[in-house]
Amino acid sequence: MTHNDELPPVEALQAVLSAYRLGSFSAAAAALGITHGAVSRRVAATERWAGFRLFGRHGRGVRATLDGERFAARIELAMAMLHDSRGTGRSDHGLDTVRVGVVQSFARLWLTPRLAALEGTPPDLRIEMEIDNAHMALSDARIAIRLGRGGWPNVVSEPLFDEGLQPFACQKIAVELGPDPAARDLLRYPLIHDASEAGWRRWLTAQDLVYHPKGSDRTFGGHDLALIAAASGMGVALARKPYGSEQHERLGLVSVHPAVVDNVERFHIVTRSGARHGAIERLIQRLQSQARQSQA
């Protein structure tokens, strides 16, 4: 490929990012309100400028090449910096605005109920949530909250709170199990997973049991959905305490076994390396304070 020194237009970079995030030119076209052919042309123009292929075919969609992964990450960061360059996060309301990238379940179960406290009394911050299932680009006015073991490269990650895994179910299943069921008794019911089987595998291993997947087991793409499924009687879910504790109490879920096993993953506040804006420092302090209160 030949390299063209003239920068690709923003529309072309947006097409690349959309295809990268969605894994499909068709999905990118729908998201951007343009045709599949327009996405293909914009990606091709960007590839000509970059001098390498950004995507390869993958099933019915596309997958970024290694070069494409690096390129997309740099575009995300550049877009974030451009977006934030309109001011240090200040907008019409006169407050410092911090954008927080979170998965949807965390936004629903933990962040939104604490939004007023996090913004201050009287408010001196404005928090704007960006629902994002991948590591969003970080900047002077953007942070992320992510679940994992921490230690991600090229960023600073600070744990929020530890989690304990404990089986919960609806009242009907709790009555059927009786007041003091053995751990193996829970396996008579479908096990509900939130995104992966890792939690149940860990909990059962701690009870000297081995997890064997059943056809009736279900996986949901978020802890909030797993709790709702358990409340509707679909099976037994692992409550992640204190994360989601308020929700399982609202749903009427009850503990069906006393054993609590540490979750090896935790939510982390993720920021870019280097000096941080005062607004981000204030928000981090408040997040940590709210996390301590939720664990008390």
UniProtKB/TrEMBL annotation:
Any one GO biological process: DNA-templated transcription
Q: Which domain of life is it from?
A: Bacteria
> Which controlled-vocabulary keywords does the entry list?
DNA-binding, Plasmid, Transcription, Transcription regulation
The answer to whether keyword Transcription regulation applies is: yes
Task: List residues of the HTH lysR-type domain.
Answer: 8-65
Q: One GO molecular function term?
A: DNA-binding transcription factor activity
Q: Pfam families, alphabetically?
A: HTH_1, LysR_substrate
Keyword DNA-binding listed = yes
Family note: Belongs to the LysR transcriptional regulatory family.
Name of protein? Transcriptional regulator, LysR family
